[in-house]
Write a structure and sequence with these properties.
Number of helices: 11
Helix content: 40-55%
Largest sheet: 7 strands, mixed
Strand order of the largest sheet: 1-6-5-4-7-8-9
Strand content: 15-25%
Order of helices and strands: EHEHEHHEHEHEHEHEHEHHEEEE
Number of strands: 13
Radius of gyration: 33 Å
Distance between the termini: 51 Å
Shape: elongated
Structural class: alpha/beta
Length: 361
């Protein structure tokens, strides 16, 4: 098997291969400096309130050094009282001062300590919340789509799937680069940082419960190993893989891929078709781009179409999928249509307001 050279994405492999962390899409939170600034303001506010409480009842306090309590003494007493248990050099001796310490200053001391340890508490709370979110995500994740490789091919494949109604919550991205997964998170996808040729990484993506797997790695040998591992973990999932060199396509099919796309050859054929007929090339480009112009899709035969000729359907039929046989529209065996057949048809992409047309009502 020919091993193509690494591209820019594959050369960044020095950041990662031993890790397979799950990264969920980030929630918008305040910047750390702003959070620290708010806590400092709250702490100074509590301190100022304590100084004010002591100042208005300063006659009820006794200073062992000069027996008088001025503003500086009030600030000193508030500081050592909130941060420690006090040194005993300034003490409340009147009933009102002691009552203020019980009802006001002691709760303020507790609040001050909570503010000081607020960052630690928030980190622990955030970790607990994130762990709960991750466990809930794993429990609900099934019949989803796993995309291995979030480069140009993986992105394009995912855009097509999203255009057909796939929700972002049902997608898991696997890529060895943490920077790529950060980009996927920013776009609303969950991601796994790790080498998809390892079974533990694919298990982190719950590949054993996946409905379909897209293998869009940068290297053909990596695509073969990923396909082998994925097929071993999930016998029923549909696996579609991309390779650069056409000579490696049979290896992908032997490894368990249901469909193999040769990216270099496909692009070359489209280029050649565009040279011969720019209009035909534009039509082909339109067909493979879901959601605009003409769409090429697969659908089941309706009851009203069963028993009819291929040319009598409402849509333009290109091929008929009967069992494991793909029959061209002009094949004599394609007609009459059977209820178990599936049709490959060309339809006009409807805008969102027209999705529920006559057949969708």
């Amino acid at each position: 098997m020919k091993l193509p050279g690494q591209d820019a994405m594959a050369r960044q492999a020095d950041e990662r291969l031993l890790d397979h962390r799950v990264k969920m899409p980030k929630r918008i939170i305040e910047k750390p400096l702003r959070q620290v600034g708010k806590r400092l303001l709250m702490a100074f506010g509590v301190l100022a309130l304590t100084v004010f409480i002591v100042w208005i009842d300063r006659a009820g306090y006794h200073d062992n050094s000069d027996e008088t309590v001025d503003l500086l003494d009030c600030m000193y007493y508030a500081t050592v009282t909130l941060s420690t248990t006090g040194y005993g050099d300034i003490v409340p001796y009147s009933d009102s001062a002691r009552l203020a310490n019980i009802l006001l200053i002691t709760p303020l001391r507790v609040l001050f300590l909570i503010i000081l340890v607020g960052t630690t508490l928030e980190v622990l709370t955030e970790r607990t919340r994130e762990e709960w979110r991750l466990n809930r995500w794993r429990a609900q994740l099934r019949e989803h789509t796993v995309v291995v490789g979030f480069g140009t091919k993986g992105r394009s494949a995912l855009q097509t799937l999203l255009a057909t109604g796939l929700r972002k919550e049902r997608v898991v991205i696997v890529d060895p680069s943490s920077k790529v997964i950060d980009i996927a998170n920013a776009e609303g996808f969950a991601g796994i940082v790790g080498d998809a040729t390892r079974s533990d990484v694919l298990l982190s993506a719950e590949v054993q419960k996946a409905r379909q797997i897209v293998v869009a790695t940068q290297r053909d040998d990596t695509a073969v190993l990923v396909t082998l591992t994925a097929r071993q973990l999930n016998r029923g999932a549909k696996i579609v893989a991309a390779v650069r060199e056409e000579e490696n396509a049979p290896l992908l099919k032997q490894s368990g891929a249901d469909a193999v796309i040769t990216s270099a050859s496909a692009a070359g054929r489209l280029l050649g078709l565009s040279v011969l007929s720019p209009s035909a090339g534009a039509v082909m480009e339109d067909l493979i781009q879901q959601g605009s112009g003409l769409d090429l899709l697969e659908r089941p035969v309706t009851r009203s179409e069963a028993g009819r000729n291929v040319r009598e359907t409402d849509d333009l039929v290109v091929s008929v999928l009967r069992g494991h046989r793909l029959l061209p529209y002009d094949d004599p065996h394609a007609s009459p249509l059977q209820l178990t057949d599936r049709l490959i048809v060309i339809v006009r992409a409807a805008p969102p307001a027209e999705v529920l047309g006559p057949r969708g009502e």
